[in-house]
Amino acid sequence: MQDMNSFLRLRYKTLLLFLLSHFAFPSVYTLENGMKIILEERHTTEFVSLQAFVKAGSIYEDEYIGFGISHLVEHMLFKGTKKRPPGEIAGEIEKSGGRIDASTSFDKTMYKITIPSQSIYVAIDILKDALFFPEFPEDELVKEKDVILREIETRDNSPEDFLSRCLFAEAFTTHPVRYPIIGYEELFKRLERKDLIAYHKERYIPSNIAISACGDFEERELLNKIKRVFSSIPRKQEKILNIPDEPRQVSKRTFYAEKPFNLAYLEMGFHIQPITHPDTYCLDLLSEILGKGRTGRLYSSLVDDKALVFGIESFSYTPAFPGLFVISAKMHPNNLKIAEKEILSEIERIKKDGVSQKELNLAKRKVIADIYSLQDTIEKKTGVLGESFFDTGDPYFLDEYVKNIEGVKTKEIRDAAKTYLNSNNMTIALLSPEKLKEREEKIAVKRREIKKGMLPNGLVYLISPSNTKGLVSIYALFKGGRLVERQGKEGISNLTASLLLAGTKNRERKDIAFFVESCGGTIGSFGGRNSFGISISILSEDINKGLSILKEILQEPAFKEDEIERERKKTILSLKNRGDSLFSSCLDKFLLTLYKVHPYRICELGTMESIGSITKKDILSFYEDRIMPNNMVLTVFGDVETGKIEKSINRIFKGWRKGDFYRPKPYFEAQLEEDRELKIKDERFSQVGIMIGFLGSRITDEDRFSLELISCILSRQDGRLFNALREEEGLVYYADVFNIFGIDPGCFIIYSQTSKDNVDSVCEKIEKEIARLKDEEVSSDELNEGRTYLIGQKEVSLENNSQYGFEVGLNELYGIPFSEIERYKENLLKIDGKKIKQIAEKYFNKKAIVIIVP
Predict the structure, then answer these.
(1) The CA-based dihedral angle spanning residues 515, 520, 525, 528, taken in that order and rounded to the nearest 10 degrees
(2) How confident is the model at residue 794 (pLDDT cuts 50, 70, 90)?
(3) Where would a tag sit more exposed on the chain, N or C end, judged by fewer CB atoms within 10 A?
């Protein structure tokens, strides 16, 4: 279950996603037992996504309101049925090359299976089994309750999540949306198996369920399969719940809390109508004009002009029931009062003067462009069909949405602001650091302390205590990745990292997952271009358990043949899914075009051929060659005591012997002597993808800071390319500029999505902006804005223990002093217009360009 803040943003994006499609024609069927079926064929993939939507969200919990029983049932539904014992459901899906997931929201629970089309019957049978015949085994229930209790205990570590939850609890006094989806700890603890059985019996009935599917199938054939499987489930009487209406708010409400964070946070919420109300379109556009991106009025005023807040945004949350129009901001604590005042002033300006036609036209283009940019996978599309049907009763609702957006007038925007954004309809939630006045000076100068040490076996460790209570982030990082992989074995770093979590000599895969989750933690792996590793997030009280399981994973992997085959299938599935993304397809083709000999030319996942060729012998050889203490950096960041952790690290890892690791031959990728261009046709995509780029710098080069600043000057929402390509003429749906740095020279990339008719114009404008960088110096205003943005983004990222530990650890691994991260601001401030011009002249010469057309 996602926390409140993440859930609301995901819900908003999902709303956008299902609102537009000129190419989809879903069919809706009703079985005799009342179950709804929504189908859409899409023969551009070999997979099918099936998703079940159950009218069993937290607002329908009735006598269990506030218990979080919907979320607990979601956790338990795959934990054993009459037909399948615990663990078999996920295993059956994964063995078929698929994946399974679930989530709970305010008004529904969703179960998702994406699977190769030839195994679709497996998915249908599993959905039936899980939805209607769960066993809720007592031993599994105990485990899952413990996992969720740990989640409840740590959910308030994020200031945004905490404040968002409090905003809803304060804004709604009667409607059950005021209660957290995950429940309250004291109520959740009271849930027993008999409660889950009773709640499931009441809510999981055919008339409360809709199944949507999208992908590689024949509609009539799939419908018949679903009928055969689900028609045996009898119709049952639905209990009609009385969801109370929220009374009209008549005065401002305020929530205030103090917690030991460094920044202050503000959220404003205004009651609005449900998604089917005609005002939805005006409110969506109003949120775009006020607070979406750097061109929004709030950002321009409070960030750029007055520097009162660090970040600000707004969104219109319109579910099937009345929602909230939300404005959120983060800032220095001293600015809380003035920021609130300025936000209200911007709202009053719209209520008094309205918005310009130019602003409205831009907002309309951005909404439509965002919708297009989010429609890329069958999994998302399947979610779109189910969400739209559940929220509006009509999967075709999206056909009218854009027409209504395009028909909104400037007067209607002002009228919507006058109707809804009023003080007597407003709830404001504020979060400030504890003992603000005493801590102000300390807040301004406090920096993270990092302790570096090395064991006799060569293992380097970095420890950093933080004021975030309860959680610790651990990374075990190794030099490796694409840079060391032998030809024909591309992707072995990523595959080996994932196999480390697939079992040890003493534990199965599920045992590792249970061990970590029982400590309130999560575990993952990654493989990149220059490194690979393991990550663990865990409660601070269980830090020694986390380090011990990490040691076991690293030193005693099993590498069983069946697990190797399982991970190989999952990787191949990931590669196929990657091919369904226009951006990923462009990037993969671009790297092959830019690089001719360097390993960076192939993505970190490898290729279908290379993954298929990797054997257990190859895995063992790579493991013995790479995973050793003298090729490792260990980071422990969070709620820790440095001295105690040093002793634990020494005790746990001191017996691990150092080794000799393979040092690959140095690769040299020559500068391009002429432009390289690749243009291909791919009928899977409805837009054109354009990727243009140059060989870039190493991560260890000082030039990287200038290249980062250039990408910011070009790409941010008030940047040169954004203005040239989207703001002025609306030529692109999406545009971005980014760097990929590596131990060897990386690349500088410009990416955009547009229509066939605009390809030449887009390429011409990109060329023009690159030429400007070489011909004239960047203005001091642009430099200052770019620096401010990058420094701000860095500061926010470093408040996250996981992100901070990961970045510092990689720096240390690559030979960059770990303290370099603290000098990021200093490095940017040294760059002037002359330096930017020199860097552009140095790097932006011959280019590679890839264009994928539908």
Answers:
(1) -160
(2) confident
(3) C
